[in-house]
Sequence to fold (478 residues):
Amino acid sequence: MNLVELLYSSVERHSSRRALTDVRSGRSLSYGQLARETQRVAALLKTEGVERGQRIGLLAPNDLAYVPAAFGLLAAGACMVPLASNLTPAETAEIVRDVQLNGCLAWPKADVLPGASGAVVQGGECDNFTFRWLDRDAEAPAEFDSLNPAFIRFTSGTTARSKGVVLSHEATAARVEAADRVLAFSEEDRILWVLPLAYHFAVTIVAYVRAGTHILMCPDTLPRAMVDAVQRLKPSVLYAAPLHFERMANLGPSEPLTSIRVILSTAAPISPAVMDRFESVYGVPIGQAYGIIEAGLPCINLGTEGLPSTSVGRPVPGYEVAVLSDDGKRLSTEDLGEIAVRGDGLFSAYYSPWQLREQITRDGWFLTGDLGWLDQAGALHLKGRKKTVMFVAGLKFFPEEVEDCINQFRGVKESRVFSRPHARMGEVPCAEVVLDSRGCDLDALKTHCARLLSSYKVPLEFTVVDAVPRTPSGKIRR
Fold:
């Protein structure tokens, strides 16, 4: 199968309905126009000799043109490698090298990667997109083509070097179907889109197109602009990152966002303080999903089912989730261990170094590297990354717990807790804090932490910074 078939199926039902609208300019594409633009891109790539399974980069911004360009690559049989426009040249070069990129489709204003001169798309939303060969004859591992690869996505690399994750057309379709059995998208839905397409096209945009929704692309992600867009355009779905919700909540009193039926936080853990503040301001509970590049969205908590808001919910249909001990044994309810996932939506391989999924999983279980526990209702609670656990004098804790405490203090917008080596204690926690316009007394902040946390968890020092370092997908860089 090919994911572009999901687009063509929606075209048969909704050809004249709007598929995409740019909120700022008002430009729109109907489903019929989206299909024609997709076919235009695919035809150019095929004319240039792009063959099934070749790794082709897509370098384009968050714009209407991204969607037909991406579907066009898939329709041509290529394996799409998203190249986010906010990557540094060194980061882009690393991806090109790691996946032995054959070619690149780039928007007109991009600094096109060096390579042989190629063809230019003429007309339509993708007008003047340039296709260039980089290393046309570079071969993939022997098993690659048999996987029916659709994407190579890179992990966020919060604590280590990022990995190229190979996703097949079948696995991506399975992820879309599994998530939709909980989210229940339909042609009546209007999606306010604020996330980077390079990181979120594979499942979410494909899911929206499959359902025939109207995607409202909002290029201005400042909090006031987002609130204004919701109040003016009346979307039914808002899918954003914790930072978006935190900034929106910090605006203060507002009219309820009555049009929204699903509001979902993704890309990184969201703190209970932000969730409570947002709901008190806008009258809408924030749900959250457990998103993993290797597995999709295996758990979703819509915030409407009576589950604890701090959980990421129960496994969606088509997935199993277990919590395992260090020796691989399945743990009982409420015991802390490593989260494992299995289901049809799992990835196919890591590209570099090449490893098939079967070489990585244990009895079909993918070990996520996340620590957590399952409650009596079957809902999953995240505790932190296995690699980010801090040890102070032999005592273990997670930076996320300390960040939640810090972020509750008046005047703090966000924080990052990290460790530094210590001769006697092994390591000690330190914190970087971003303050809002009110500011705060750092001594009072330390007293606040000492009152709520065990002494070994209290940061030894607090440093005020303009922003905490984040990965391109929005996760705090550890």
